[in-house]
């Protein structure tokens, strides 16, 4: 590990010397970071990595954050945290060469095309079809709750390729060009007034077979990699201020918050500390190849902790909490991402209501923990081994 650490530290310092963050355009710095193997240090050389142990990425992240360097994940979190690990696990070398660098430098933002109006919590019940046509697939269907789809260039898609197999089989994973003919994105207005979530309609969309990730009809296993990385995304250790940090900052500005707010602040601080330790344990276990329940636990705690933290922020603001700029619907843009980065607590509070729904509802997380961790009997699933074509659908 010492030799690997020395390599990472030396490479990072070389990057900072040759491309000072204060004087290097954002894209140029990220391109140099990728080429140096510091995008994902555990990826192979040539794919944004150095082929070293995954924990060493933290050394890079913290060092670059100290210098004010741009963050490759900041404006493309779904691609960076979910798409890239999926490609590393299942993608071909050609796919890694095609997608990873544009993803990291910000040339191509990614979105997720999983959920459907008739298949939300039961993702395996999706009905979007992909039919083989020569060296391409023709896709028809509808997806929903697709974050950032209006400003994305690549969509991670699961579609049904064999309806005669049970619903968890017969699914295939594709990467879709969001600018392809037949892809229509319709924004969905949220509490904030912004349209971060979207419906996506796919009408006779042609997807080349070269954009298929994994084997035909093995898409469920590929999708599980994406979903597990999504829970890691919620549960990762963060370098930016968290809602709990924002609450503590506001609390310190109040001359006499009173016993009720003081008690809530203490409780919140303790829970946030436990969550941070759980994130570190999850990262350590993941690095050691020991799968555990920390991802689902962390996602569940993340949602409820941050909702409580932002509610406390508004209570600390008092009457000021009602000062909101506009609830008018607005398309999601690069400016919207910048505004989120500024972390206005009023906007974050409204946005936080989705935390316990997106990425798997809190109820689903509790089911997973009950069945897979506590060993409780699963809910009856009468359609699990029935061919999808024979399952009654509303």
Structural account:
This protein is α+β, with helices and mostly antiparallel strands. Helix content is 43%, strand content 14%. It contains twelve helices and ten strands. The protein has helices spanning 2-18, 26-35, 57-66, 77-90, 93-105, 219-235, 243-253, 259-287, 294-317, 334-341, 345-351, 362-372; strands at residues 110-113, 129-133, 136-143, 154-160, 171-177, 183-188, 194-195, 197-208, 212-213, 330-331. The protein has a four-stranded mixed beta sheet. The longest helix has 29 residues, at 259-287. It is globular, with a radius of gyration of 22 Å. The N and C termini lie far apart (56 Å).
Number of helices: 12
Shape by Cα distribution: globular
Mean pLDDT over all positions: 89
User: SS-based structural class?
Assistant: alpha+beta
Radius of gyration: 22 Å
Please provide the count of β strands: 10
Strand percentage: 5-15%
Helix content, binned percent: 40-55%
SSE arrangement, N to C: HHHHHEEEEEEEEEHHHHEHHH
Strand arrangement across the biggest beta sheet: 1-4-5-9
> Main beta sheet, described?
4 strands, mixed
Unreliable parts: none
Report how far the terminal alpha carbons are from each other.
56 Å
